[in-house]
């Protein structure tokens, strides 16, 4: 889960007397439970909150004992969080099923049937539908539009109006009609517009080919349905940039990707000296 509702009034009534350290422990525990969609053991809770000092560990233990219930499997569970996670999973499952059927089911009575015949005494023509009488141009009257050049079409070719936005992508990455929720398309692929968007937003250091392949594989395995896969791809690229995923090293005989190398390996790498020698 990427977000959850937090009612400040309810939180303050139940946890308003906590110390600052205890507040931090409680909020970190809630965030971790929602993010992982799971509940921690005591050791998990200390690890999830990064508690290191005696005061911080005691704060985590206090919050677990006060706001969570210890289950038979050794995990501390909170009923409200468990209900939110169950509701979220149910929504995801429902969206996935609707996506396989082609989107959300249409409302039964959305379009009203047109009556076959008007009541007696009423005309078939709507009021004001008669065309206005034609006006003949006088000698001094010029056509109203003079800015259009001869032979210039009123709209772009193929009837496209307005022109498509830059960065949306071509048909190979089509993400459906606006508001339509469906699984990731089978032909979702990296396009020139997507590369241009990444370059415009300063993400050219990411290996877009590998990142897109992993993006497609991950969401295809999950089977989740989304309303806009291009926007989901953009969000994923921003997240990868934040964590330093897939940065490129460009130089003489140097690899294009160092994603699988640790920071320690990068700092102790002396291959540059061998190349210079």
Give your account of this protein's structure:
The protein has 277 residues and is mainly alpha-helical. The protein is built from 10 helices and 4 strands. It has helices spanning 8-15, 20-36, 42-48, 54-67, 79-100, 192-200, 208-222, 229-242, 263-267, 271-276, and strands at residues 69-70, 76-77, 182-183, 225-226. The strands form 2 sheets. Strands 1-2 form a two-stranded antiparallel ribbon. A hairpin with a 5-residue loop joins strand 1 and strand 2 (76-77). Helix 2 (20-36) crosses helix 4. The model is unreliable at 152-175 and 249-259 (pLDDT under 50).
Summarize the structure.
This protein is mainly alpha-helical and 277 residues long.
Essential attributes:
277 residues, mainly alpha, two-stranded antiparallel sheet, 10 helices, 3% strand, extended
Provide the succession of SSEs: HHHHEEHEHHEHHH
Q: Low-confidence runs (pLDDT<50, min 5 residues)?
A: 152-175, 249-259
Shape type: extended
Helix content: 40-55%
Would you report the number of β strands? Answer: 4
What fraction strand?
under 5%
In DSSP terms, counting alpha (H) and pi (I) runs of 4 or more, how many helices? Answer: 10
Category from helices, strands and their pairing: mainly alpha
Strand order of the largest sheet: 1-2
Largest sheet: 2 strands, antiparallel
What is the average of the pLDDT values?
A: 76
The separation of the N and C termini measures: 52 Å
Task: Give the C-alpha Rg.
Answer: 30 Å
């Amino acid at each position: 889960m990427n977000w959850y509702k937090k009612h400040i009034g309810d939180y303050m009534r139940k946890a308003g007397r906590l110390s600052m350290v205890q507040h931090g422990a409680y909020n970190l525990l809630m965030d971790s439970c929602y993010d992982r969609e799971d509940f921690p053991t005591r050791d998990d809770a200390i690890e999830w909150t990064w508690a290191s000092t005696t005061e911080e560990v005691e704060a985590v233990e206090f919050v677990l004992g006060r706001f969570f219930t210890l289950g038979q499997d050794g995990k501390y569970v909170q009923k409200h969080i468990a209900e939110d996670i169950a509701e979220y999973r149910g929504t995801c499952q429902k969206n996935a099923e609707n996506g396989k059927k082609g989107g959300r089911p249409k409302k039964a009575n959305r379009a009203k049937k047109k009556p076959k015949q008007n009541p007696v005494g009423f005309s078939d023509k709507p009021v004001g539908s008669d065309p206005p009488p034609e006006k003949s141009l006088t000698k001094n009257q010029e056509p109203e539009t003079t800015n259009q050049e001869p032979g210039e079409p009123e709209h772009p070719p193929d009837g496209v109006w307005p022109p498509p936005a830059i960065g949306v992508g071509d048909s190979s990455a089509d993400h459906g009609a606006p508001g339509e929720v469906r699984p990731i398309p089978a032909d979702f692929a990296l396009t020139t517009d997507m590369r241009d968007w990444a370059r415009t937003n300063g993400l050219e250091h990411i290996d877009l080919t590998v990142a897109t392949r992993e993006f497609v594989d991950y969401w295809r395995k999950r089977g989740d349905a989304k309303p806009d896969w291009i926007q989901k791809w953009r969000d994923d690229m921003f997240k990868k940039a934040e964590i330093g995923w897939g940065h490129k090293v460009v130089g003489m005989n140097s690899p294009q990707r160092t994603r699988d190398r640790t920071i320690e390996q990068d700092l102790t790498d002396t291959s540059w000296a061998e190349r210079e020698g």
